[in-house]
């Protein structure tokens, strides 16, 4: 019977999953899908367009996972995955690499909930639920912060007292699983820049950029939390901390400020229309244009800053939802980066081609789809092999 690895990427109302064949290291995908509408009208949408309605359990994530487990058992002839890998946004100061999960690890990760309140609770919920359902199955936590944990001290220190730094108040960086995947793909897809200095733009509802030199993260736009850096769908990006002090002075408490910064800022706050770039591109409202212009402007500033961190730039890679599927945004960013040597091929960009710059462009531009789930599967597979050989 074929062994499989289940990968779970959990959000507040959905659970994305992929099932990988673990028979060899290539890990082909056997099945992918997601459970949507958790907490309201949950439904399982699987590969091939099948839609199944879970029973009305009212248990939220645990109920959805119980249904998913039964559904998978049916398709796997009664077998269950030999391991489950999870995306966990914040590994904090304790974890600079991906880890097998036990009660101590879960306890530590729970202390980082205030550092990623939008993500961490949702990442941990399926880990707890599976430990109750399948206590003997290996679970692996794969951290978005791990890829960035070998930055120089200059890149990760804040200008704050050393005691706070020792407590873990430092720049971590996020979207590390996405950046690691891109770094691994560059030698095959773009060998000319794989060993050089590359800025990767992970542009989605959550957005950031990373400076990668010779396959290693040098710096990132995100810092202590996933609020920093570029404007995002609902998050402001870089913000003077004095703004938070101002809001406190107006009587807003921590919970209200958290709600504002995680849910009501970014493209949504600027436009007053939507947090979705597709809606803003289709709108004639000047506020929509303002939101997109701000997004492009801040992204172009970040390219310059990350190029400075590497003392040069050889390539620019776009990935994630906006980066992969919004030619107009790529064009606007590339045009503002022309001074760095980015010469856009407009036809290639419009066609979402792999390479979107002209042959004589000094800085090569690429569009490479990311695959965080595959990175999680690879790390889970490696950790399982180590456990079996120990």
Automatic annotation (TrEMBL):
Family statement: Belongs to the acetokinase family.
GO-annotated molecular function: acetate kinase activity; ATP binding; magnesium ion binding
InterPro entries from the UniProt entry: Ac/propionate_kinase (IPR004372), Aliphatic_acid_kin_short-chain (IPR000890), Aliphatic_acid_kinase_CS (IPR023865), ATPase_NBD (IPR043129)
Gene Ontology cellular-component annotations: cytosol
Pathway: Metabolic intermediate biosynthesis; acetyl-CoA biosynthesis; acetyl-CoA from acetate: step 1/2
Co-factor binding comment: Mg(2+). Can also accept Mn(2+).
Subunit and interaction comment: Homodimer.
Active site: 144
Location of the protein in the cell: Cytoplasm
Primary role: Catalyzes the formation of acetyl phosphate from acetate and ATP. Can also catalyze the reverse reaction.
Record-listed ATP binding positions: 16, 202-206, 276-278
Keywords: ATP-binding, Cytoplasm, Kinase, Magnesium, Metal-binding, Nucleotide-binding, Transferase
Annotated protein name in UniProt: Acetate kinase
A Gene Ontology BP annotation from the UniProt entry: acetyl-CoA biosynthetic process
Binding site for Mg(2+): 9, 372
Residues given in the record as substrate binding sites: 87
Site label Transition state stabilizer, positions: 175, 235
Main location: cytoplasm
EC number: 2.7.2.1
Database matches in PROSITE patterns: ACETATE_KINASE_1, ACETATE_KINASE_2
């Amino acid at each position: 019977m074929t062994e499989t690895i289940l990968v779970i990427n959990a959000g507040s109302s959905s659970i994305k999953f992929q099932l990988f064949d673990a028979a060899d290291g290539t890990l082909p995908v056997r099945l992918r899908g997601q459970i949507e509408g958790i907490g309201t009208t949950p439904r399982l949408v699987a590969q091939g367009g099948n839609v199944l309605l879970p029973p009305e359990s009212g248990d939220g994530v645990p109920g959805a996972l119980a249904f998913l487990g039964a559904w998978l058992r049916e398709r796997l002839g009664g077998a269950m995955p030999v391991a489950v890998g999870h995306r966990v946004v914040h590994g904090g100061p304790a974890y600079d690499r991906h880890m097998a999960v036990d009660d101590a690890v879960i306890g530590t990760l729970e202390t980082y909930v205030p550092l990623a309140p939008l993500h961490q609770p949702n990442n941990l919920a399926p880990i707890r639920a599976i430990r109750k359902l399948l206590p003997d199955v290996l679970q692996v936590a794969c951290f978005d912060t791990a890829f960035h944990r070998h930055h120089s001290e200059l890149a990760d220190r804040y200008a704050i007292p050393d005691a706070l730094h020792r407590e873990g108040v430092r720049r971590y960086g996020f979207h590390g699983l996405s950046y690691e995947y891109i770094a691994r793909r560059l030698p095959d897809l773009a060998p000319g820049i794989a060993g050089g200095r590359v800025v990767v733009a992970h542009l989605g509802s959550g957005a950031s950029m990373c400076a990668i030199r010779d396959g290693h993260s040098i710096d990132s736009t995100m810092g202590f939390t996933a609020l920093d850096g570029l404007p995002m769908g609902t998050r402001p990006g870089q913000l003077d901390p004095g703004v938070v002090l101002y809001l406190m002075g107006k009587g807003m408490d921590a919970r209200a400020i958290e709600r504002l910064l995680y849910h009501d800022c970014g493209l949504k706050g600027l436009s007053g229309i939507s947090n979705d770039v597709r809606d803003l591109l289709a709108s004639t409202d000047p506020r929509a244009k303002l939101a997109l212009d701000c997004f492009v402007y801040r992204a172009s500033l970040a390219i310059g800053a990350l190029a400075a961190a590497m003392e040069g730039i050889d390539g620019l890679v776009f990935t994630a939802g906006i980066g992969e599927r919004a030619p107009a945004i790529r064009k606007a960013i590339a045009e503002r980066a022309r001074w760095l040597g980015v010469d856009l091929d407009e036809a290639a960009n419009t066609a979402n081609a792999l390479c979107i710059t002209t042959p004589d462009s000094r800085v090569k531009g690429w569009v490479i789809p990311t695959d965080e789930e595959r990175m999680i599967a690879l790390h889970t597979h490696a950790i399982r092999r180590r456990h079996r050989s120990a």
